[in-house]
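Q: I'm writing up a methods section and want to include an example of the input and output format. Could you take the sequence below and give the corresponding predicted structure tokens, formatted cleanly so I can copy it straight into the document?
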Amino acid sequence: MDIHKLKSDLQTKGYTQFNLKDFNEDYYNQLLPLKCNETQNLKHLMLSCRLDASPKGFSRTNAVHLNNHYASFDIAKSEKDDIVNTLDLDTMFQNWYYCDYLQLPLNNSIEKIKHNIARSLFSIDDSIKIKNFIRNITFFDTGCGIINHVDGTYEDRICAIMIYLNETYDINDGGILKLKNEEEVLPIFGNVAVISLDKNNGNPEHEVTKVTGGIGRYSITTFINYKVA
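A: Here is the clean output for your methods example:
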């Protein structure tokens, strides 16, 4: 793998993609227990739901916002579905389920992998402290997605990193990360997308197309920041 090409992509396009196995095969192997398929997946951990949507005939300023924690995934899904159906929501700005990966036995491995990716691609010396702003496993069920948007740049932001966990995936089921409407990232296990949030040459538009079928889309999603005292 050409690390210089990845760095160049981040500088010129604001994003890059690769497979974790090419970056570091040991990292890839460490995450194998998280591989998701029909019978073995992480849906039972998805106890939180994020939804931002607008009822028919209303603008985004009248949006419905949901970001709650529940006792089970089934309860989370049921409440979200009730809101969507009751309010006749028209436009889904963003919708997914998630959990904090710190509850997983592999949380230390995930932290190390994410930080080493960020340090390698953004040439961050070990003496400089970095931290996670968001550290989630996300699940996009049928109907979930994110419209085209930018994440925003702040003084301490470095990047967003997504590592995908689905063992197999049909592109016809949606859930595809689209970067600047130019490139797509299929959510197959080990595929990695990195979005620069540098205020000078990062912050590209991107979206996740609505999931329309299959077992859903699983990924590790983290925002990396500089650790400001």
